[in-house]
Specification:
Layout lengths: L1 H15 L3 E2 L19 E4 L1 H6 L15 E7 L4 E6 L8 E4 L2 E2 L19 E7 L4 E6 L6 E9 L3 E12 L2 E12 L8 E14 L2 E15 L12 E16 L3 E17 L9 E17 L3 E14 L3 E19 L2 E12 L3 E15 L2 E12 L3 H5 L5 E2 L7 E15 L2 E13 L2 E5 L6 E5 L3 E15 L3 E13 L7 E2 L6 E13 L2 E12 L5 E12 L2 E8 L7 E3 L2 E2 L4 E9 L1
Parallel strand pairs: 5-8, 22-26
Antiparallel strand pairs: 1-27, 2-7, 3-4, 5-6, 7-8, 9-10, 9-36, 10-11, 11-12, 12-13, 13-14, 14-15, 15-16, 16-17, 17-18, 18-19, 19-20, 20-21, 21-23, 23-24, 24-27, 25-26, 25-29, 27-28, 28-30, 30-31, 31-32, 32-33, 33-36, 34-35
């Protein structure tokens, strides 16, 4: 049935008979002369955010073949994010350029304190292992009201209002989601809230952001298949205040930020007194950025991380960082940019980082590109101090470091076709993983040695005019990791997708739009699977009605060992915007 369905979709374009091509702007192709034109970037644009089916902002990341979103439950409840075989602790997640990683554990890093009405775009910097969520700028006016209902007693409501106050532009957004869950003990209730304010005065600007998310959910087997009735309550508060100044010769941005995260984990919701852990983390930071007219820049960052936990204890650590470099420039057919810096991190002393980006225009439609990144990451508080009957942290863990290389090209042979491709290598040493020698042992955090990740990316894309099929894109990533660890059993590092293929068919017929996305994954230690997601939409003046389906063929699969993937889940939405 699935093969027949796909063949029918492919046949729709020739049926229309008078297809014409239009200029293609591939998702993965950054424009020549932009700041990161020599780096491999996947961009999830505002158009993608409108058209793709998703139940949370975090799930948009899974539509890149270079990424892997391992969901314990959908709708943004909780997910682990990896990129080119990295683990969920490795990736840097930023909001308007400010890091929002959780120091307790990477399980909570991807809790984005925004609603779908607040997001402008997402940029995935693959070689730098970084994801940046970019905010929409507030407007003088505009209101969005949206309500959805669906399977498993799902009910969603969203309100977003833009308004002026004393010369400032402001946006206030509130979102609520609730469901009984698609399987036992995966019920959830989620609140997202954000307030964003922006003031522009000639060459000065002031910005303020407050974002909040609260998530209460059943956590069936989230951390151990031995406990089917786990429960968790998490909440996050994020504040950002920025002052910007443009003096012509240089631009200055001063940003202060604060992130507070709370987590209450109950091992057995029927018996809370058996085992309950309560954790609170705090991150305070100051970031100063100078950008000079000639392209040179400097960044200074001071940050403090704290944790107060019933299991991990109380700990504080500080980081002071300096970075300098050259924003990417073009001279003739050459593109070049670089940065180098050092961080002084409590306990681990000085840690270096760097980036080099090079590009060369062989032709107007063919660009070669190379990037190198020197990266490090400190262990999370969980990796250092956590202890229970099945897991044991290691306070003697060292810093994990890696050298990342990416070599590729971007080719636009025709104005309706674009191809981006490349090969990559991550040479990682002092790798941090949870390991054990036998199934009867506890999992223990260790520096397991050197790991090399090799792979290939390729993304062709087509766009058409005056045709039912408007867009066709395919993303493919091949990945392999050498298993050099001395420990026979690994919990995270060697659980990755060997092959991943994302296809996106975009249709438009008399104002009715449809997007069908397939996700094929071939994990190394679990059975391969393919799922299909679908969004149908029709706009009627100020109203938009949409039907969205996740895993529409109800494929049974696992994204994480012993945790079932998302079942078929449909929802119907009505939005009113004025």
């Amino acid at each position: 049935m699935k093969k027949t369905f796909i063949l029918l979709l492919l046949c729709l374009c020739p049926v229309c008979g008078n297809c014409e091509t239009i200029t293609l702007e591939p998702i993965t192709v950054s424009k020549t002369g932009s700041k990161n034109a020599s780096e491999s970037i996947d961009n999830i644009s505002q158009e993608d955010i409108r058209n793709l089916p998703y139940s949370s902002l975090e799930e948009l990341l899974n539509y890149s073949s270079s990424t892997n979103l391992k969901e314990r439950s959908p709708f943004g409840v909780q997910q682990d994010f990896s990129m080119r075989g990295s683990v969920f602790e490795d990736a840097n997640v930023t909001l308007n350029g400010v890091k929002i990683n959780d120091p307790q554990t990477g399980h909570y890093t991807l809790e984005i304190p925004l609603t779908s009405a607040d997001l402008e775009e997402i940029n995935i910097y693959k070689n730098s292992q970084k994801v940046d969520f970019k905010l929409k700028a507030p407007r003088d006016k505009g209101v969005l009201l949206k309500s959805s209902f669906g399977q498993y007693a799902l009910w969603e409501n969203l309100m977003s209002v833009n308004f002026p106050v004393l010369g400032t532009k402001n946006r206030l957004s509130v979102e609520h989601k609730i469901s009984k869950g698609s399987r036992q003990d995966t019920d959830f209730e989620i609140y997202n809230f954000s307030y964003h304010s922006l003031l522009n005065l000639d060459n000065r600007d002031l910005e303020f952001l407050f974002g909040s998310t609260k998530r209460d959910f059943g956590a069936d087997s989230f951390y151990s298949s031995r406990f089917r009735q786990e429960e968790e309550h998490v909440n996050q508060r994020f504040f950002l205040a920025r002052f910007g100044m443009d003096e012509g010769a240089f631009k200055l941005n001063n940003t202060a930020y604060f992130r507070r995260h709370g987590d209450k984990f109950i091992l057995d919701r029927t018996n809370p007194s058996f085992s309950t852990n309560i954790h609170k983390t705090y991150v305070y930071g100051l970031k100063e950025e100078f950008n000079f007219r000639n392209g040179l820049f400097t960044n200074i960052n001071i940050e403090e991380e704290k944790i107060d936990s019933t299991n991990l204890g109380k700990h504080t650590r500080q980081r002071k960082g300096f970075l300098a470099g050259l924003n990417e420039k073009q001279t003739g057919k050459f593109l070049y940019g670089f940065s180098a810096g050092t961080d002084y991190y409590y306990k681990w002393s000085y840690l270096e980082n760097g980036h080099v980006g090079l590009g060369y225009l062989l032709k107007d439609n063919l660009k070669l590109k190379f990037s190198y990144d020197r990266l490090w990451r400190a262990p999370s508080f969980t990796e250092l101090y956590y202890s229970d009957a099945a897991n044991r942290g290691n306070p003697n863990l060292g810093i994990q470091r890696s050298n990342n290389f990416d070599l590729g090209f971007e080719f636009l042979p025709k104005d309706f076709l674009g191809i981006s491709s490349g090969v990559f290598l991550r040479d990682q040493y002092d790798t941090i993983d949870w390991v054990r020698n036998s199934p009867s042992d506890v999992w223990q955090a260790q520096n397991v040695g050197n790991v090399k990740a090799y792979g290939v990316d390729i993304t062709p894309e087509l766009k058409f005019k005056d045709c039912i099929l408007e867009r066709l894109s395919i993303g493919y990533t091949y990945l392999t990791l050498n298993k050099a660890s001395p420990y026979p059993l690994s919990k995270y590092v060697f659980d990755y997708d060997r092959h991943k293929i994302i296809t996106n068919f975009g249709f438009n017929y008399k104002g009715y739009t449809a997007n069908l996305i397939s996700n094929f994954a071939n994990p190394v230690d679990r059975r391969k699977y393919v799922t299909f997601d679908l969004k149908l939409e029709k706009k009627l003046r100020d109203f938009t009605i949409a039907l969205e389906g996740i895993n529409i063929f109800n494929k049974s699969y696992e994204e994480l060992k012993d945790i079932d993937g998302t079942k078929r889940w449909y929802k119907l939405s009505l939005a009113y915007e004025f």
